[in-house]
Structure formats: C-alpha cells, structure tokens
Amino acid sequence: MKRALITGITGQDGSYLTEILLDKGYEVHGVIRRSSSFNTKRIDHLYNQEELLDHRFFLHYGDLVDTSNLNRLLEKIEPDEIYNLAAQSHVKVSFEIPDYTAQVDALGTLRFLDAIRETGLKSTKFYQASTSELYGKVQEVPQTEKTPFYPRSPYAVAKLYGYWIIVNYREAYNIYASNGILFNHESPRRGETFVTRKITRAASRILIGTQDKLVLGNLSAKRDWGYAPEYCEGMWQILQHDKADDFVLATGETHTVREFVQHTFSKLGVELEWKGEGAKETGIVKSIDLERNKKVFAKKDLVNGITVGDTVVEVSPNYYRPTEVELLIGDSSKAEKELGWKAKTKFEDLVGIMADADFDLVARKGY
Q1: What is the pTM (predicted TM-score) of this model?
Q2: Quick check: is 133 catalytic?
Q3: Is 277 annotated in the active site?
Q4: Which ranges of 174-227 does DSSP label H, i.e. alpha helix?
C-alpha cells in the first residue's frame, strides 16, 4: 500500500486529492496547523469515516516554517509520495504579508526538499503546487512550460523560488521532484475570499435579500478557469510519470471576471446589463426569468432580494492589485501527450456547478 503525505490537506485541492488517493487505495497522511478553532470542514466527511477506510487516513500537526517537524514527519511516515499544497495562496493578501508568504511558499518548499535529502528518502516522489501566477505580465500567449516567467506579486515571486528550487534539487540531488503549473481551478470548495466563490456566494445572497451588492476589482482581468477535481487527478498523474518533470495544467480557454459574474447571475435566472467603465462600471438587473431556473425560483419565499433596475455589481479600487495580471491562458499539450490529462469541464458548466452549490447552501442557511 502506497503512503502519501499532503500539506494543505484542509484546502480545496487537499480535500479533493485526499478523496482521489483514498479511492486508489493509498494510506493518506495530512498535515494541519494547530488552531484554536476547527478548520477541517472540507475533510470532516472523510475523517469521521476513518473506520470505513480501514484506518488509512491520518492527520498530523505541522507547519512548513518548522524544519524539525518536517524531518520528524518524514522519518515517521516514510511517504512514497508528497504533495506540497500548503501555501499562503491569496495574491492580494501577499502584498500585505510578504514576509510570511515567502517563509511558507518559498522557504517551506526548500525545507521539505532538504528534509527528504537529510532523511535519505531518495525514492520519495515530491509534487510542488506551482501556479500560473508565475507568468504574471505574460511574455507569450498561450503560456507553456517554456514561457518565460514574470511574477507580479509577492505570492508569485515566492512561488517562483519554489519552482526553481524544485528544478535545482532534482538536478543536484537526483530527487524525484515535479512542478505542476496549474492555472485557476475552482469548485464549491473554493475559499470564500477568492473571486469565483465570492461571486457565486454573493449572487445567491443578493437573490434571497441578505446582501445588497457584489463589489469587485478588475472586471476585465482574464483567467483560464477549470474544475478543481480534474486538476487534482492531474497532480497524481504527474507523480506517476516515469521521470520527474514540470507540467502545465489548463483548459486553454480564457474568460473575464465580468463573464464569470454574467454567467453566475444568468444561471440563477437574472440577466445583467453593464454601464460605465473601469472603476465606475456597474452591473444592473436587466430582467428576471422565473422559468429559467425553477430550482431557484421555486423557493419564492427566498427569492425576494432584487428587482429590475437594481444595481447589484460595483467596482472598487480597493480590490485592484498594486500590479495587475491581465491575461492568463495555458497550453497543456505536454500534459495531454505525456500524461493523458485533459480538462473536461467547460467554463459554463463550472460556473453552473458553483452557482447551484452556493444557492443551495445560502438557501439552506438563510443567509
């Protein structure tokens, strides 16, 4: 039975990857940070079923800023595969806490690689969660494994260090270490402060009358959005490759934040029209179709928050980044050719999955 160690196991990707590996018969060990409040809701359904999993799922306290802790975990678990998903992953927040972002995202990766080297676990395979934010001010469209990097945030710069230290240790010490350069991937488990989840949650709240407006930053920013569970399967496929290497995972399509907003409201039966430009742009309710989404509008006691003509989307400069990333679109041809991986879920379907899940959540809670 293979053993896997996952950092960031309580996050979106960590929870999906855990499900995938358990399904494949792995023994899964997760690293969580000590907190005074529980932050395991994404994996509670698995942890509470431990007896059903033949005791194949374990959690350990740890932190990527603690070198001795990492060494002890590796010596105790002796994992066959390590998936390093832990990070301070919010781009805008990284401008406010750049030192901590570097400690976790950059030096945390180095500490892990050094722990592998020092404990002599040379057969362990290491996956590093890299990011499309490395491309930043893009030098080529679409972006591939060979596109030059131009990071535009402390988060991206820290991840750039993580990327290159993976390559360095792979070449210097013959460690099986691979980078997955994953473009934006979303799901109903996405954190609520990330723009996609912020949009679907706010739209649902606006419909039931518990929120007035959705306030965003750059509506024209373009992203390559895919479905997170498919990308987590891709992480596993990367570590099954016959040699360590770096792979882009992406859909090859790009859509604006504005499109994500438009499709979310449309999925919930509301058509928007846009007025103004830049920081003065607004989204206004153009029409409400009670027949389009009967699942939503059957809940007539809930859907009472908006009327035609209401302004439901506004832009605030507070949500702009100091240095914007305007366009990201990936080319995953290498992953398709060498791994057999390809994104399957279309953009409109992804938005629908998230909008439905958040409306159900908001309707159930009533806020």
Answers
A1: 0.94
A2: yes
A3: no
A4: 195-208
